[in-house]
Amino acid sequence: QVQLVESGGGLVQAGGSLRLSCAVSGRTFDKYHMGWFRQASGKEREFVAGITIGGSTIHADSVKDRFTISRDFAVNTLYLQMNSLKPEDTAVYYCAAQEPATYEYQYYGQGTQVTVSS
User: Edge-to-edge strands of the sheet including 77-82?
Assistant: First the structure.
């Protein structure tokens, strides 16, 4: 089992930046593909970005060229650098872990709130 703890959320003005972190413990960090999801109030959770064990990345069209996912194996941490933030980026952001050869993310953190004011 893996434990995920997000941090770095907060209140920021439109156009600003935040960096989210996800500390991973339990099983070895390099055994999982990782991702970020978000859920705005009254909406379903949506995929934001993912990164494989090998470092390949994918970003949702809504955040492409503004957000960047990365991971640091030395400190067992996943990151999401968010630039040019918009009010529509306001949501609870969740870190997630996926076991290889599966089709869904099995583990989620408790989430961190990001609020972007206009």
Answer: 2-7, 18-26, 77-82, 67-72
Residue 70 has pLDDT above 90, yes or no: yes
Q: Do 108 and 96 form a contact (C-beta atoms < 8 A)?
A: yes
pLDDT, averaged across the chain: 96
C-alpha distances out from residue 74 to 58, 70, 71, 93, 96, Å: 22, 12, 9, 23, 19
Nearest to 53 by CA among 93, 9, 102, 18: 102
Lowest-confidence region among 40-49, 89-98, 100-109: 100-109
- The amino acid sitting at 30 is D
What is the radius of gyration, based on Cα positions, of the chain? Answer: 13
Please name which of 1, 6, 24 lies closest in space to residue 73, comparing C-alpha atoms: 24
Q: Which are the contacts of 101, defined by CB distance < 8 A and separation ≥ 6?
A: none
